[in-house]
Amino acid sequence: QVQLVESGGGLVQPGGSLRLSCTASGFTFIGSSMRWYRQTPGKERELVARISSSSSSTEYADAAKGRFTISRDNTKNTVFLQMNSLKPEDTAVYYCNAVLLSGSRYWGQGTQVTVSS
Q1: How many other CB atoms are found less than 10 A from the CB of residue 23?
Q2: Are 52 and 33 in contact (CB under 8 A)?
Q3: Chain-wide mean pLDDT for the chain?
Q4: Are 116 and 88 in contact (CB under 8 A)?
Q5: Residue 43: what pLDDT?
Q6: What is the pLDDT of residue 117?
Q7: How far is CA 12 from each of CA 50, 60, 64, 76, 98, rounded to the nearest angstrom?
Q8: Residues 81-102: pLDDT tens digits?
Q9: What is the spatial distance between Cα 5 and Cα 49, in angstroms, rounded to a whole number?
């Protein structure tokens, strides 16, 4: 079955960096658009970044531009989110999302990112 497993979250001080990973299985990764979302309590899940199947196109939320970088390794079925210059307002649960060619969407279980001194 489809699985998306995130890792790399944790506690980091303001100004620090984290690299999130999401390893996929159970579907054709190379043909899928991949996204990172985040969610805080009481708020809707919001798109952080997305990357096309061939990595030719990326898009970022305004809050992520200039600080976050999304990338993927199609040989390892993995998508990454490099987060630099982290701020307390980046604290959230980060979710990996796959959008398949069929239009089906799948979610990972989420990984907590906490930015605090």
Answers
A1: 17
A2: yes
A3: 96
A4: yes
A5: 95
A6: 95
A7: 23, 22, 17, 27, 27
A8: 999 999 999 999 999 999 998 9
A9: 17
Q: What's the number of CA atoms in the CB half-sphere (13 Å) around residue 77?
A: 13
Tokens of 3: 């699985």
Residue 98 corresponds to which tokens in the numbers above?
A: 């796959």
Q: Which string of DSSP letters, residue by residue, matches the chain? A: --EEEEE--EEE-TT--EEEEEEEESS-GGGSEEEEEEE-TTS--EEEEEE-TTSS-EEE-TTTTTTEEEEEETTTTEEEEEE-S--GGG-EEEEEEEE-TTS-EEE---EEEEE--
Contact yes or no for 37/108 (Cβ under 8 A): no
Q: In the predicted model, is pLDDT for residue 47 greater than 90?
A: yes
Residue 56: phi and psi, rounded to 5, are -75, -20
